[in-house]
């Protein structure tokens, strides 16, 4: 073990960095001076523009997180373009809007593959490369308040987020001081994923939130940045950013 703190990440891989919270994380990290590689199945014009404007700092790729060969190729491309990856944000995920009894087996399997299996495999890939070269790093898993509080229509989704939180605690013990790994669990915020929520559901969430408003990506960004770059001893934790939900 080393006496020194785990250094700040300098080259960060962000899954699902094309829109929503992921794109905001990419923009925030770039503004903070980090190099960022971001991927999603579709590279949006916003992400493409960022990569075109800052080719030495931002790399964008069209990659499905469930396609391990494609993910591995993008990791290699990132390392040859931006340098060795020492930060990972597992942000890509798909949502759910179906009671468990109405969720088809293939939909349930897809949720688990995208939101749990794929980030665990990506984490394994990044960690193996990091540890093989005796470097140290930081990992942030974007989970959800649903893992802690529950929400109707989100049983399988919540299971995947709770799974990532459990894996994070065990990984922190495995990794010791080789890498810091933590979760950020946001409350509901407006995005393509949460667009399925109706106004009745949103009103209810706001009513049950101490701060009386929905979370916004901008509330989450400083926490992600801090976990990637600050000189901290935070390890294996879930930091919730939800305005204090009372449900
Ligand atoms: N919105 C909320 O209320 C809320 C609350 C708590 C936590 N979260 C979590 O916050 C994170 C971001 O959510 P968001 O609301 O910003 O969602 P979003 O707007 O739907 O964005 C999801 C991102 O993940 C990518 N993605 C989805 N499936 C993928 C796949 N198979 N391969 C690669 N990329 C994939 C999407 O791009 P493509 O579709 O082009 O692949 C997109 O870039 C997620 O982990 C979510 O679970 C969201």
From TrEMBL:
<comment type="similarity">
    <text>Belongs to the short-chain dehydrogenases/reductases (SDR) family.</text>
</comment>
<dbReference type="InterPro" id="IPR002347">
    <property type="entry name" value="SDR_fam"/>
</dbReference>
<dbReference type="InterPro" id="IPR036291">
    <property type="entry name" value="NAD(P)-bd_dom_sf"/>
</dbReference>
<dbReference type="InterPro" id="IPR057326">
    <property type="entry name" value="KR_dom"/>
</dbReference>
<dbReference type="GO" id="GO:0016616">
    <property type="term" value="F:oxidoreductase activity, acting on the CH-OH group of donors, NAD or NADP as acceptor"/>
</dbReference>
<feature type="domain" description="Ketoreductase">
    <location>
        <begin position="10"/>
        <end position="188"/>
    </location>
</feature>
<dbReference type="Pfam" id="PF00106">
    <property type="entry name" value="adh_short"/>
</dbReference>
<protein>
    <submittedName>
        <fullName>3-oxoacyl-ACP reductase</fullName>
    </submittedName>
</protein>
<dbReference type="GO" id="GO:0030497">
    <property type="term" value="P:fatty acid elongation"/>
</dbReference>
């Amino acid at each position: 073990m080393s006496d020194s703190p785990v250094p700040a990440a300098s080259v960060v891989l962000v899954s699902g960095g094309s829109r929503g919270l992921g794109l905001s994380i990419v923009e925030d990290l770039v503004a903070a001076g980090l190099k960022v590689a971001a991927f999603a199945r579709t590279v949006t014009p916003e992400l493409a523009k960022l990569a075109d404007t800052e080719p030495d700092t931002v790399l964008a790729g069209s990659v499905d997180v469930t396609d391990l060969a494609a993910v591995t190729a993008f990791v290699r491309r990132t390392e040859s373009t931006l340098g060795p990856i020492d930060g990972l944000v597992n942000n890509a995920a798909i949502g759910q809007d179906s009671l468990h009894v109405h969720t088809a087996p293939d939909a349930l399997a897809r949720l688990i593959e995208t939101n749990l299996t794929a980030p665990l495999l990506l984490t394994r890939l990044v960690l193996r490369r990091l540890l093989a070269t005796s470097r140290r790093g930081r990992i942030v898993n974007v989970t959800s308040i649903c893992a802690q509080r529950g929400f109707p229509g989100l049983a399988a989704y919540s299971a995947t987020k709770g799974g990532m939180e459990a894996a994070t605690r065990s990984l922190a013990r495995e990794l010791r001081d080789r890498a810091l790994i933590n979760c950020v669990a946001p409350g509901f915020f407006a995005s393509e994923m949460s667009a399925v929520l109706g106004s009745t559901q949103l009103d209810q969430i706001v009513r049950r939130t101490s701060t009386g408003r929905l979370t916004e990506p901008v509330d989450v960004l400083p926490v992600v940045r801090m976990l990637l770059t600050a000189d901290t001893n935070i390890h294996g934790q879930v930091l919730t950013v939800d305005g204090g939900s009372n449900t």
